[in-house]
Amino acid sequence: MWKIADREVSSRLLIGSALYPSPEIMCNAIKASQSDIVTVSLRRQSVDGADGESFWQLLKSLDLNILPNTAGCHSAKEAITTALMARELFGTHWIKLEIIGDDYSLQPDPFALLEATKELVAQGFEVFPYCTDDLVLCEKLMSAGCQILMPWGAPIGTGKGLINPYALRKLRQRLPEATLIVDAGIGAPSHASQAMEMGFDGVLLNTAVAQANNPESMAKAMGLAVSAGRLAYEAGLMPEQDTAQPSTPTLGTPFWHHYPEHEPTR
Amino acid sequence: MWKIADREVSSRLLIGSALYPSPEIMCNAIKASQSDIVTVSLRRQSVDGADGESFWQLLKSLDLNILPNTAGCHSAKEAITTALMARELFGTHWIKLEIIGDDYSLQPDPFALLEATKELVAQGFEVFPYCTDDLVLCEKLMSAGCQILMPWGAPIGTGKGLINPYALRKLRQRLPEATLIVDAGIGAPSHASQAMEMGFDGVLLNTAVAQANNPESMAKAMGLAVSAGRLAYEAGLMPEQDTAQPSTPTLGTPFWHHYPEHEPTR
Amino acid sequence: MWKIADREVSSRLLIGSALYPSPEIMCNAIKASQSDIVTVSLRRQSVDGADGESFWQLLKSLDLNILPNTAGCHSAKEAITTALMARELFGTHWIKLEIIGDDYSLQPDPFALLEATKELVAQGFEVFPYCTDDLVLCEKLMSAGCQILMPWGAPIGTGKGLINPYALRKLRQRLPEATLIVDAGIGAPSHASQAMEMGFDGVLLNTAVAQANNPESMAKAMGLAVSAGRLAYEAGLMPEQDTAQPSTPTLGTPFWHHYPEHEPTR
Amino acid sequence: MWKIADREVSSRLLIGSALYPSPEIMCNAIKASQSDIVTVSLRRQSVDGADGESFWQLLKSLDLNILPNTAGCHSAKEAITTALMARELFGTHWIKLEIIGDDYSLQPDPFALLEATKELVAQGFEVFPYCTDDLVLCEKLMSAGCQILMPWGAPIGTGKGLINPYALRKLRQRLPEATLIVDAGIGAPSHASQAMEMGFDGVLLNTAVAQANNPESMAKAMGLAVSAGRLAYEAGLMPEQDTAQPSTPTLGTPFWHHYPEHEPTR
Amino acid sequence: MNIVLNGKAVEIPETANLQAFFESLNNEDAAITLPRQFAVAVNAQFVPRSQYPNIILQEGDDLELLVPMQGG
Amino acid sequence: MNIVLNGKAVEIPETANLQAFFESLNNEDAAITLPRQFAVAVNAQFVPRSQYPNIILQEGDDLELLVPMQGG
Amino acid sequence: MNIVLNGKAVEIPETANLQAFFESLNNEDAAITLPRQFAVAVNAQFVPRSQYPNIILQEGDDLELLVPMQGG
Amino acid sequence: MNIVLNGKAVEIPETANLQAFFESLNNEDAAITLPRQFAVAVNAQFVPRSQYPNIILQEGDDLELLVPMQGG
Lengths: 266, 266, 266, 266, 72, 72, 72, 72
Hints:
Chain A is an alpha/beta fold and 266 residues long.
């Protein structure tokens, strides 16, 4: 168990609910991931009359912590309105604050993000900001009241993994008190494990699972990888060496090298 | 279950028995790893009278498949003699064939390796050659009778992970029939998972577990990571994208951008 | 010749004047670099009475474009005052705007940077902002009136090269109108060339030259590498291939393979 | 000037003569590269009656050192016959020994390469082996009489640069006496410079120049980059640092931070 | 009276407050079906449920009525 | 009167304007030697050269007098 | 007599030595034009120029005649 | 008679075959204690257990007696 915001949960994997081939596969994948926290959004009901009700009932049946997002917002004002609506709709003061500054990279806008964070913290929200790996931005978000920071690993949906591990490693070193979650860009279990090995507190992902050929298996894989990475971080990774070190003991090796017939072939 | 050589096993992690802080920790770590195959060596009994008996009884109690190695050999002749002794001593025709061509990098000697492989195959061994990622060498080893190839990820004991993923990926593509196991150089669960995601059949490691602050936890982490990587390989990884793709649906996004008070701050 | 701000210059290498073993070596290195633009700072005269006069006379003798910086400033206000002093002292409206947001990484503060930029542009400066590779920040700086952007390659003085080539490549693609100069982090000619091959307009560096064993030779090397990278960008780099392509023609190869004595040894 | 085999030359760039859009462009590019050594091959005269004569006259007019290759050979025997023919045809005992072990990767066959090298050295050739970065192979080639080794950077024609810099760096460290030339895989000037910065003695390339939109400019770029890399190696590269170091002196910085109006905006 | 509901022009009775408007949507022949679970913004300002009786829709008002949806 | 000059406390005559103060520094026994080339800030505000005659130093003023220096 | 020349079957007079054979190629109506610069292998063995007069071609011989070409 | 056992010179009775030699090591005052589990090479050639009675040790023979050990 570990503490995120005001709650104790088991899993360090946070998972999204979008892009699955079917609601049933979504459910099975989320269960297989063993996640305790799932992200959702707010949208107009769709033209075909679907009112989100069946999705919502399905999701509620999983009995997980809900983390609504403000995906699609481009300004602090929009994001604040969306957050307020989310609080009423989902009955939670948690909000994944996502304000896009560029439509191609879906990069967070650091300026609007800080502005909205200040307002939402003042209104009692627990803000989970989707942010860049910019240390100065991250420090300002913490000063504004964030306990949790969610820097990107790579742009949303690219599956590139951690494109700037140096920056992420520095974030972890410099912000030991923050709850740090890599959000976006994870494409494979090895990426998720790498983030956890660095000491990140969690990983949030969606596309890599939902768009796998077999989302349920991939969800399970991601859950295992996050556990593996955390265990390894706690177990203390061996330091990387530049030169080889034998694993098998050399003491007690037979000295056969002086036999002429044993001469190496070179 | 999967088939390696002539046996069915569950785990795709092969683990070494060396360098642990104590025999008890070795046992606990090997159990925690869930490995089915453990590597051992042959040495003179040590000066303090230890005759390998207690180690051997301990290891036998784990009831695993034993894979003896020829670590420390520098020529085909030495390795062949060691393999013959191992077959009698451990009662198995499996041999991890390790012939060092350079004492600093502990790199395999491709020439002696091929020579010894031919002889050992002729004598009925199942040869697990510790080799480089050289495709031509690997093809010759297969022609010489190997079903299994164990290319290095990085030099033994360095923990660098996969230093040449391009070469390893090509090996996997070109040798679909071979049982491919990354042996040596793994330093973290993310490395092990990465190898499995590429389609490797297994991972053999020792130092990263034995030299962790907590070997038992690290062993468990490695076992999980190998499972995660394999699951992901089978589930079909998402293709890497160069540009961002939203995960949350854009359909149904409220159009608030035209409100003056919603203008982005930039 | 190419145009930077309002001037035509030959070289695409901008060089710093700090950290050299001696003023004479500084002069020789700057000459060897063939740079047309050199950075300077403002400081109190040193305790030993040195009033910057000899340094300044030496630098003026090189007859280059002077680019004063605001190094050491931590707020917009400080930077603005420093810029105003620099304009009078050096007789130029060019200013390398450097506002540190973190004393360990010497990372730019995006917020103070944007604030100061707006004011300095209003006061008639040509602002060369030392910035991160954050696209949203870069776009806001351009909206604020910058023609030139100077994203970091890596933290100042680390010599790590381009730690996030993906972000830099995207900056170049997305901001085709901007004059983009990689500033900071360059440690070797290959780093400088890489930036230029991506289509950056220039490179600004200091430590890698000043701290080389032989600054003059290193300065020359950097100048050549910047030229090489630019030439290559203009000449059109070959696209990277995943599989091998023979360079020597295969047409006309003798067909000797059917001779038994020519059989490959494998 | 530096010594390669038995000759003194100026340039450390060796260039190929294949794949150019036209003989004239080939000539101009080779001149622009400032190379002193150019590779050629032997083939049947082509169906259209071209007998290699015009190519050969053109190449001779450049007055460079000729390095014939054995491209296309798959066995030691073929390569030896080709080398003997090349010696007579081109009047040189230099031979770039290229024996392909795999038609997809165009990877050298280490076994045939060593076999042919022994024979050719015995017959008085100066062997330039196109080899892998395998240290054991390289040591055996030197024992067989090679002064020069030409490990690949990446597979021929891929332009990937140095795919295993760790192995290449180790080769340089371990074989200080060898003349080491990176051959194949270079795609950009930064790759060539990187090899030279590591202390390699030269670089051999062809496709990256011949297939550029503008081969002549690219050839010049490669020549500059090789010079830059060598100069930098000799000038002593700064060691990479993990944390930032200011370049502008901090001594004498005005202490303005205590002014309320100077407070950082965060 | 015309307002914009989730981006589409709809005609509604005058002087309706939000509460009444939503109740009217339960008619079989309503323009849209009222979702069971939703949150509301009028002219890009959030309106809490408790305020529905107090909000009188005006000509040209922009009403957003959002429901739970998948998200990443 | 006491002011701070480049971080150090110095005593100067009362009611000096900047111009006069700087001229006084050309005396051989001045606290510091006036650099040939410099720019000035008083209390962290830039003072252009043309304003030197108009600026009267006050007790406790913080005077920065900066010169060209190496920079990266 | 039939031999293979650079991969193609050609008919040549009996008992020709290499020297004579090459000279015959200078005729206008020869099967191929003799290149000015070349090296020779017979049955995949290099034949030095000095040995041309001593080599008698046999039925079915495989003659390679190579010229300078571009190479990487 | 002198042989080398695991790298150390030891003196043993003449004409001992391997079987007899190993049995002699079970004496309390033997040079080394015979391990319970081992494999043998004489002069770098493997000797299978079944051959112990047939192998007569010679002056200067190099006897390796290896036991199970940790390995990676």
